Every structure is written in C-alpha cells, then in structure tokens.
Amino acid sequence: MTRPTTRTRGGRHGAGRAAGRVRAAGERAAAAKGRLTVALAGLALMGFGAHGLATHLDLPGWAVWFAGAAIAHDGVLAPAVLAAGLATTRLRPPYRRIVQAALLTGGTLTLVSLPLVLGYGRRADTPSRLPLPYGRNLLIILAAVTTIAALTAAAHALARHHTTRRRTHRRAARRATAKGGTRR
C-alpha cells in the first residue's frame, strides 16, 4: 500500500498558504512603513523642541528645572511607589491593587501640585497670580481619590460576599440531593 502524496502545487490548501504568506509579508511591510513614519515624525518633533530650547529659553534655568524633575522622580516618586508596593504586600490581591492605585494617584497629584500649595511664584503685588486655595483643593481631590478607592473596595467585597454565599448555597443543595433529600 502506498502513501498518498501531498500536493505541493495547486489545490486549495497550497494556494491558501501561499496567499497567507503574501498577505503576512504585506502586513509586515506596512507595519515597518508605519513605524518608520512615526519615528521620522518623532525625530522632527525632537528637532523642533531642541531648536525652541536653544533659541527661546534660558538654558541654565531649564537645566535646573529638568534636573529637579529628574531628582523628584528618582529621589521621591520612585522610592515612594516602591515603599507603597512593599507596604501593601500583606493585603489580598484585589484590595492590594486598589490601595496601590489610590496611593500612586494621590502621591502623583501631591507631587505635581506641591509648587502651587507652597505658593512658589506668588507675589504680593500681583494677587491674580496663584489666587486659589491650592492646599484645600488638594485635600478635596485626595479625599475624592480615597472615597473612590474605598467604594471600589467595598463593591469588590460585596460582590465577593454574594459569590461566596451563592457558592455555599449550591454546595448545601448538592449535599442535600446527594443524601436523598429534596432540593428546594
């Protein structure tokens, strides 16, 4: 008995594979063209930004601001995020994510709004510069973040309670029917 030979040319299977390979090659070429376009646009925007820095800004002042932002990120925000992650490791996974998200959001909001809260740039002769109570507004926003996190955790706990209760009822009903009882 001889084995049937597989078709290498023609037939619907071979043509479908070839068309799939051609289509995949076309998609790869289109993706490469798109990546190249985005990369060139990014380089053009970086050049425009560098030109603006060189012609319109006080470079030493900008350098101090840029270094301060890097120090604030690496020296304050990143260690705070790591500490929050470490501090919340004892929480159960769904609640851990909620608490970590609230801490990250609150910390970032505080870090961004700190210059406004401290009044950097406020001048007595220009009352319209930084006119709002930024400290109070930050507390309101942080209270909103905390409330949303607490409501999310409560909704999760309630859903978990109902799921556990439903599962317990099903087990009890299965046990009752297995012992010959009637199921209500």
UniProtKB/TrEMBL annotation:
Is Transport set as a keyword in this record?
no
Transmembrane stretches, start-end: 36-57, 63-86, 98-118, 138-159
The protein's UniProt keywords, in alphabetical order, are: Membrane, Transmembrane, Transmembrane helix
Region annotated Disordered sits at: 1-22, 159-184
Q: Which domain of life is it from?
A: Bacteria
- Record's signal peptide: none
Name of the protein: Lipoprotein
* Taxonomic lineage from the root: Bacteria, Bacillati, Actinomycetota, Actinomycetes, Streptosporangiales
